[in-house]
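Fold these two proteins, one after the other.
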Amino acid sequence: MSNVPSVYEPISPNLTESRARIEAIFSDCHDLTIKEWSYGRDLEYTSVGILLDTLSQNYRTTYMSALIQDLSPLLGALDKTLTPDKLARYWEAQGVSTHSAHLLDSIEQVTKSLTDGNVVFLLDGWDRAIGCEMPGVQTRSVSEPTMEPVVFGPHNSTIEDLKTNIGLLRALIKTPKLKFKLLHAGEYSRRDIVYGYLSDTVPPEDLKLFEQRLSGIEDKEILDTTYLEEWVEESVFTPFPQVRYTERPDVATSALLTGKIIVLVQGSPTMMICPGLFIDFFSTSEDYYQRTVFSTLIRWLRVIAFIMAITLPSLYVALSTFHTELIPTVLLLAILDTREKIPFPAFVEALLMEFFFELLREAGIRLPRPIGSAVSIVGALVIGQAAIQAKIASPIMVIVVALTGIASFAMPQYNLAIALRVLRFPLMILAATLGGFGLMIGYFLILLHLTKLKSLSQEYLTGFTPLDWSRMLSSVIFRQPIRSMLKKARPGSGGSR
């Protein structure tokens, strides 16, 4: 960072020096565009126009339009005898020729103007600059995110155009410290891949390891952001996700502010956030748009839902098969009454119902949207009622499977819910063979696996091991008031949104 010039420096009259300063400040920003412009009788003088092309619409046309609009009166008045001194005296004495342009006196003002989506002109021999406003920042029509519906907060989402998505992020984080590096992948698709980070918040070891893992990807055909997950993650065969996905610019912005790296691919509306720690999967951006008490209550529900989604079927199998003495007598009699004439043991019954439920869930996802939800709901009701009447499953088992499915839907991240779906089946096998002892073995193996897992350079259970009560409580159990969170905010210190 010591090689990067200060943004508070004045603009140098030497155009080459000023240009080098701006290029150093916006280093590793592939969307920084610099165009040269010559003027004078023999075109002996040089000027440059600088802009961030992801923040502008039709930036090449806008660039020429702004240039002609601002300089046309001057060209007509002074013919072809323009010199830097004449231009400087004209603009300093009379101001710029349009209300959408303004004079800039320092590198700081140039930087701010660029990150606001303006085009900046520098003249050789002049210690000031001109910032011309662009017609508009790159945005998309407002629409609800498909995978992350929201009640409060921004309702826009990313789309398949890479420049649009980068522009949405640039519009929310207006600083040259937001870096975007460009990669090209694939011999045939030539897909553009961009990863972004805030240079003063991202852990250097995370960034270094991330770039090492992406090395050699240039000759691979990458068609979607999800293709990169196995390149970035530590363990390919673990059911637990080590990255997060989002379609919402506010979620990606919050992740950048807490030291995360985001990845975007041309043609994909999904952004990947890494590293994804276990503690990150229990909070959403909407937690910070709701009142503290309500957000805390929702987080409690998520923790309970997580325990139910991974535990409920196997716990029922263990209790009903091996540990009936732990069930209250009245409840045990009710269970025995409902299981009368059921030809299968509890494990087979649970396995069948889980299979039917997963089948209905997949059918509801793959069918066209207008009929998918109707088929999944009607199918669950019909099959559940028919299974009870046919004595294939007991009502209590239908309730257990339904509650487990609903609990998995309460997980903020879909890929974490998939991990819980995968783990339910081996836990049910352990519960059916060894009872409660088998469950303890299963939980111990899961915990042991999580303690060995890493996401980039960070431990997957950061916040739990070593135990950090403040981070765990604020990121999982409680949502602190916004005022106290903003006062204590440090890069990478709080829970991510």
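Now the second one:
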Amino acid sequence: MDEALAVLRREFEGAFLLNLRGEGLVWDRAAFSRLEQAMRTACTEFEGREDLPRWMAEGFYEASHFVAEWTSHPNFPRPEPAQYYEDCLERLRDLADWFFRGWHAYQEPHVWRDL
């Protein structure tokens, strides 16, 4: 988990997100993959917990909201194929939902099972 948190912090603060906004306007597939895997690990580890680290919550929020906004400019060189790009945006939203709600979109929430 420590390694995943280090990767998560590095990708939130730098590699992937900064490349989207920097002068290069680059969608780094390898950085996205590292980010997605680290986010998934964090979701698993923090599932159901109420003590979410602020830096992590901010990173999940920014990734799920601002990546789509930052890359929506018509001149942004989106990765091909287009479906890959759309799937990535959906994955970021799904991971943020999982992180903040404590269960993921493809899992029946415990709230409904208890009714």
